[in-house]
């Protein structure tokens, strides 16, 4: 090596080589400057995207993804970079988790917006007001049985004096950060390379629920973060050599499991299932299995006892989604119509839609590659790593049949909710493959690195597009039949009027979107109908025709007080193709499901008194004992 080549690394004044010391601080400084600048640019681009969408201008999708990727790709580079220190990786992952919460935070910083957010916000607020847990919820009837999130938020709001929504944001941002770090910790229990752990966290962030669904004010947003830490504690307990360490980690696993059980039913069930896969794999590969089975039994017992003692109706609440989805999928396989057309009339750009279709295929190729790598390394890894990573491969495989359920109206929601859990397997098993590909590259900027960053871009864009409709992701003018744009000034005014005149807790019948507002801001108890209580038959009845006697008896016996009618149901088609509930017997053929006369017939019914009339919203008070009139007739 020539003197000219060597001279930059030598301090001529004292002959010392400053290279190592300079590199020690150069990396964090460069990372800090890079991520600060890209983070500011990304946040500005996200704000621009939302403003353009709100003002009806084009370009919101391009601005949004430019903002996301300008920070996410450099963050992925610094997190997986070989020379990054442990502290730098930790800082990058924390910053990445905070930045990826920004889209949801900017979407609705001041109050609830999504369907389930109205329910959880109202439930938490009621705990602050009344101090009672396990109260029934009129929007999502089962969430009152799982008060973990609501009790946490209500306690924080009460102790600090902040609003319920502000307390919820603190809890959810913290949960989002802990979820990201927890995935890295879990992956670190299988492979010692910290780059694999960081890669697993980045890959997991590409799932369709990460940016919007698991950042909303919902019980899964908190529970899934606790799940990854429970699994990490479980792996530490299984791997522990001494009895004292094993009992210590198991003791920490138990409160995590109980917290999950008291917070979200599906997360608790998935925890039990994942532990069962790990225990089964440990048995097959002759790894330590006794502790794994004990943890599985503990989680299963926690779920079973809670559902038996506290929430016995959880099974009946969950069963229709899967049962009807399988029926519909079977009908589609037999040639019947009734399936969903993906991106039907969607305003999402073509490249988002194409990315959504390509993402499952790319994920499949990645899992196959991870399986090949797992097989090749099976003799050089310890039995527990081999067994646990094999279990994660099985968990990853569950992602693909769930994507087929997205084609059914009833299964679409369940498919989306399963992806956040099955993607945990994809993240853990594909992370070693990513690092292996990078290690094969000899140049700093390699074809492998560029390919992986491009794949990361494709997966983030495609999965997010598949997981959330544009109306959920972007602001805009009020749209009939959209949960996120249901809070029109008219509906808010009507709900406030009813609360001021009738107080809280009045039972009323309403459509899905009116029910959201009356049940949250209005603090009432709406019902939108079900198979056992088909309240929507009131709206479907023909003018002058009979009302169903059984329904009328239910309304009278259960002391319903008000009926809310949104006349837009006769003028427009709901944006998400639902008027009342998922399995309603109402035609969805691109035309309004009701006629004007069906919705104005209530003006002439003797057992209804109109008490509020707006441009679109009318409120009627039930008067079942009015002068002995025939309650079964649609007109006097």
TrEMBL record:
Keywords in alphabetical order: Membrane, Transmembrane, Transmembrane helix
Name this polypeptide is given: Glycosyltransferase RgtA/B/C/D-like domain-containing protein
UniProt keyword Membrane present: yes
Ion transport listed as a keyword: no
UniProt biased composition (Basic and acidic residues): 10-20
Region of interest: Disordered: 1-22
Top-rank taxon: Bacteria
TM stretches of this protein: 25-50, 62-80, 164-187, 219-238, 245-262, 268-285, 292-310, 355-375, 387-407, 419-438, 445-466
């Amino acid at each position: 090596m020539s003197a000219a080549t060597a001279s930059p690394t030598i301090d001529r004044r004292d002959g010392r080589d400053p290279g190592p010391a300079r590199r020690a601080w150069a990396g964090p400084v460069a990372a800090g400057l890079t991520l600060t600048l890209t983070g500011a640019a990304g946040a500005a681009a996200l704000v621009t995207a939302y403003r353009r969408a709100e003002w009806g201008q084009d370009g919101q999708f391009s601005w949004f993804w430019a903002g996301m990727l300008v920070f996410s790709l450099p963050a992925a580079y610094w997190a997986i970079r070989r020379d990054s220190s442990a502290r730098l990786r930790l800082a990058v992952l924390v910053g990445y988790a905070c930045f990826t919460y920004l889209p949801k935070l900017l979407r609705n910083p001041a109050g609830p917006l999504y369907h389930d957010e109205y329910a959880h916000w109202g439930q938490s607020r009621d705990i602050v007001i009344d101090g009672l847990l396990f109260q029934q919820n009129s929007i999502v009837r089962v969430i009152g049985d799982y008060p973990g999130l609501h009790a946490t938020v209500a306690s924080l709001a009460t102790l600090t004096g902040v609003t319920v929504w502000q307390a919820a944001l603190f809890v959810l941002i913290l949960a989002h950060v802990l979820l990201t770090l927890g995935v890295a910790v879990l992956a670190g229990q299988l492979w010692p390379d910290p780059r694999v752990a960081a890669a697993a966290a980045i890959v997991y962030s590409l799932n369709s629920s990460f940016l919007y669904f698991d950042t909303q004010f919902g019980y899964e947003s908190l529970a899934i973060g606790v799940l990854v830490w429970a699994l990490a504690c479980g792996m530490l307990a299984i791997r522990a050599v001494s009895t004292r360490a094993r009992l210590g980690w198991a003791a920490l696993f138990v409160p995590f499991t109980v917290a999950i059980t008291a917070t979200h039913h599906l997360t608790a069930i998935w925890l039990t299932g994942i532990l069962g896969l790990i225990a089964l794999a440990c048995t097959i590969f002759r790894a330590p299995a006794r502790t794994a089975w004990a943890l599985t039994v503990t989680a299963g017992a926690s779920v079973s006892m809670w559902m038996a003692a506290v929430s016995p109706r959880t099974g009946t609440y969950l069963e229709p989604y899967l049962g009807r989805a399988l029926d519909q999928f079977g009908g589609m396989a037999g040639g019947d119509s009734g399936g969903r057309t993906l991106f039907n009339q969607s305003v999402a750009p073509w490249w988002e839609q194409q990315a959504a279709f390509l993402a499952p295929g790319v994920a499949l190729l990645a899992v196959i590659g991870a399986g090949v790598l797992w097989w090749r390394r099976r003799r050089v890894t310890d039995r527990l790593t081999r067994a646990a990573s094999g279990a994660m491969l099985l968990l990853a495989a569950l992602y693909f049949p769930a994507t087929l359920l997205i084609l059914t109206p009833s299964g679409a929601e369940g498919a989306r909710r399963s992806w956040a859990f099955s993607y945990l397997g994809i993240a853990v098993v594909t992370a070693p493959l990513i690092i292996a590909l990078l290690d094969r590259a000899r140049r700093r900027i390699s074809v492998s690195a560029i390919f992986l960053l491009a794949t990361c871009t494709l997966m983030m864009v495609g999965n997010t597009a598949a997981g959330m409709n544009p109306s959920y992701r972007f602001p805009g003018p009020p749209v009939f039949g959209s949960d996120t744009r249901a809070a029109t000034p008219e509906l808010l005014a009507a709900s406030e009027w009813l609360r001021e005149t009738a107080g809280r807790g009045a039972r009323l019948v309403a459509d899905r979107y009116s029910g959201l507002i009356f049940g949250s801001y209005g603090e009432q108890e709406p019902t939108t109908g079900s198979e056992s209580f088909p309240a929507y038959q009131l709206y479907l009845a023909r003018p002058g025709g009979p009302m169903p006697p059984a329904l009328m008896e239910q309304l009278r016996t259960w002391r319903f007080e008000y009926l809310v009618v949104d006349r837009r149901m006769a003028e427009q088609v709901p944006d998400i193709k639902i008027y009342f509930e998922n399995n309603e017997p109402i035609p969805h053929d691109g035309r309004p499901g009701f006629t004007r006369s069906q919705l104005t017939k209530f003006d002439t019914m003797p057992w209804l008194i109109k008490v509020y009339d707006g441009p679109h919203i009318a409120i009627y008070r039930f008067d079942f004992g009015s002068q002995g009139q025939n309650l079964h007739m649609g007109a006097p």
